[in-house]
Amino acid sequence: MRVLVCDDEQLARDRLVRLVDTMDGIELVAQAANGREAVEVARHMRPDVVLMDIRMPGMDGFEAAQALAGTEVPPALIFCTAYEDHALEAFRAQALDYLLKPVSRDELGAALERARSWNGRRPATATTVEATASDRRNHISARTHRGIELVPVQDIRYFLADQKYITVRHGSGEVLIDETLKDLETEFDDLFVRVHRNALAALKYIESLEQVPNGHHQLRLRGVADALVVSRRHVAGLRRLMQRL
């Protein structure tokens, strides 16, 4: 996998170069000191991945991302920045990942592994690769009327499947995502538990398991008014799990 590193700060650029050089199967093909230079170099070198700073003189990272998106085979884009407040803009720019400086080797390695699923048009989602605890998402992204909304996984109460979409219930409301419950269960298997064929509940928010008059069971979660229906096949396992919480 061919990588281009772009950062206007020499020290930051050198650090990324050193990290890339330690990774098997990754080749550093070029460096750039600003967005315009990155675009020009990318058109000639055709990297698979660009590690891009955001705040740079002349042409910043977002402007460069827009230019790269118009190339014949757009590279996967991983933003590496010192600022947390550009995450939404980064995902609107179809970034594969958003890493905060100083970037660690593990974080960069996980992001580059995800980049292997790049299809030349858009970043692969975490549901297209087998996630592990070290490289899984910290946020779920959803397209809403406000644009891309990022929901911290730690704030999610449950995932509820309804036909082709998944409702993500979090502390401030809910959003819809186009993923599968099975992929979410695999990715977050130690954070959520299956309580029904169409529902995953967050372990940290489980409050009580109740039996309702018709003999069915429902699960109460902290901070959520509505209860989740628990299927009979999952009741015993859920009880055992709750005893260990």
TrEMBL record:
The keyword DNA-binding applies. The keyword Membrane does not apply. Residues 140-244 form the HTH LytTR-type domain. PROSITE patterns: HTH_LYTTR (PS50930), RESPONSE_REGULATORY (PS50110). SMART domains: LytTR, REC. The modification 4-aspartylphosphate is found at residue 53. Coiled coil: none annotated. It holds the Pfam family LytTR. Keywords: DNA-binding, Phosphoprotein, Two-component regulatory system. Residues 2-116 form the Response regulatory domain. PANTHER family: REGULATOR OF RPOS, TRANSCRIPTIONAL REGULATORY PROTEIN BTSR. This is LytR/AlgR family response regulator transcription factor. The lineage of its organism: Bacteria, Pseudomonadati, Pseudomonadota, Gammaproteobacteria, Oceanospirillales.
